[in-house]
Amino acid sequence: MAKVEVEQETGDVSRPAPPAELVVGIPGLVDAVQLRTAAAQWTGSSRAIAVVFPRVPGMSDALETLGESGEVRLVAREISAAANATVSWLGQPVVYAALLAEAESLGASACVILNPDLAAFTPAAVDALARPIRERECDLTMPLYRAGPFDGLINQAILAPMTRALYGMRVRYPLAQDFAVSAEFLPGLRQSVSTPAAGQGLLWPATEAVLREKKVCQVYLPVHHEYAAVGMDLPALLQQIVAPLFADVERHASLWQRVRNSHSTTESGAEPMSDETPAGNSPDPRPMVEAFQLGQRNLQEVWSLVLPPVTLLELKKLSRQPLESFRMPDTLWTRVVYDFALAYRLRTLSRGHLLGAMAPLYLGWVGSRALEVESGVPAGQRQEQLDRAFEQNKPYLVQRWRWPDRFNP
Amino acid sequence: MWNQVGHTLSNSMAQAMGRFASLLPGILAFLLAVILFSLIGLLLSWALRRILISVHFDERLGRGTEAVTEWSPRQTPTGLAARLVFWIFVVIGIAVGADAFGASSQSAIAVGLLGYLPKLIGASVILLVGNIVARFMSRGVLIGAVNMNLQYARLLSLGVKWMVLALTTAMALDHLQIGEKIVDLAFGILFGGIVLSLSLAVGLGSRELVSRSIERETSRVTAPPAHEEEPLRHF
User: Fold this and answer.
1) Does A75 share its domain with A212?
2) Are residues A12 and A158 in the same domain?
3) How far does A149 lie from chain B, in Å, by closest CA?
4) How far is A298 from chain B (nearest CA, A)?
């Protein structure tokens, strides 16, 4: 029978922890029973694997009472998460820093970070993420999930295109919670999340890889995560996800202004089935378009602080379009996002208000995308067009960033 | 007779000029104190800004600074601390100058004005803070109401803004002891009237809407959540 060791923190430095070939880090609170069940899938594995996760009172006892069922060493570590830092479901930088430090101290050749829902804690998924690292193909493996056209919309609308345009890296999920890091990249990544400024934001592994000139690859991951933001209102979600991205853009301004063009990464694994939504399953675009129109009627005063006159005029024209022909042009959306990133940097208005004022515009984009998908335009093709628009309009951001008062079309 | 009138006039003129001349050293002392303390404040705020920037004060404060940037978006904590130091010295300068002015002057008007000066400063601060709070709250209410799909978002935001401004003005006038009872009464009537009209509007006009809303909330609490797949996943 395979063995599960539950290691508790003893503070005994004289007895070093046994090395692990692979460290699996879980940057959130895990369910003990679920973890034990998932660990049981590793029976027969010949590699030394350590699973590191934040310890909560009573957790280690719960793990011990569950008996032996796996081939992994479970390491519960005392990690004091900052009470006022990033929301827990996105993973706090301080927790990432502790996990990466643990992987370094255990001498792992690769560290795989997994979403705390443990959906990816299977030998197949972990191997898929760790294989390119083991074979020295890259230093960071990012996942490619099977997603429909209405999954991860903030990622499609803002995170992925902006990462591609600004940092020149075509990573489809820059804020993924499943990724793998090589031993060479571990110290750099840990350092990046250990700074006081980074401690307030989120971990953007792909951006850090670009900063440190590390090679990135992507693998298709046969994993489906539960929707973590159920019931969360949109402005709060934008505040938690987009605000840290804007903060990161501000921090790395000297880097991305020098980057020209983007390049693709190596993709491996079995490509998932087409991500087209079956007919009749797309959301109703009317409430989203109406939310945009309501914003247009009421938020002129706030938007005019952020957006230049030309953009305001285009938004006005767009709001008068009938529902059937309502389409937000890629260039317009791109400039809106760039202008909000700039307003975030310039503190044109309170940052909470800024992201709240962005919500109706984002809903307008979602409504437009829903109408396009409904009319049969392939989502993948549209995404590629949007990504290109972000790249093509990068000079606009650079100019606005450098001369916000002088360059105000 | 005309000689006497002219004599009296020239006497009173000489007296007035003499009184004004006696105030001049006090005014000069007041100005000097304000300028001197402002310069000290400027120097200290500059030094403080340099020190705080060098120790990365804003970054060290971490998320605590969010509250500062929320209320005063264009100010960083470092900038605010430096400004605070400057204005504290300006106020000290005014206080010292006023004291010097009072010591050098025996005029009842000057003493009365000096006694009123702190109240004027207090009322100005109340108005300034009230204006900032009104602007912040009205913008917050407007954005929140739009995101809640309320059609009367602008009306709500304007209402909040004028409520806060009315409250602030009443407080400032009360602080200045201008028309105390009238202001109290007028504000009480105005505020009470608004609350009453809102109650009537909700109670009579929107009775069905409120009851439907309560019913919906109750059924949401009692009924088990339906496990429907959300068509949209923002993240």
Assistant:
1) yes
2) yes
3) 9
4) 6
Residue B206 C-alpha, separation from nearest chain A C-alpha, in angstroms: 22
pLDDT digits (tens, 9 = 90+) for A138-169: 889 999 888 777 888 898 999 999 999 999 88
Is the complex ipTM more than 0.90?
no
Closest chain B residue to the Cα of A154, Cα to Cα:
B234
Out of A196, A235, A366, name the one closest to residue B62 (CB): A196
Record: contact A348-B147, CB cut-off 8 A = no
Model confidence pTM above 0.90: no
Same-domain pairing of B143 and B73: no
> For residue A367, what are the domain limits?
286-402
Nearest CA in chain A to B69: A350
**Which of chain A's residues have a Cβ under 8 Å away from the Cβ of B147?**
233-235, 291, 356, 359-360
pLDDT digits (tens, 9 = 90+) for A389-400: 999 999 999 988
Q: Which residues form the domain of B45?
A: 1-106
Whether residue B234 lies within 8 A of chain A, CB to CB, comes out as yes
Query: Per the domain annotation, does B232 fall within a domain?
Result: no
Question: Which runs of consecutive H residues, i.e. helices, occur in B176-206?
Answer: 180-200
Residue in A291, A297, A350 closest to B73 by CB:
A350
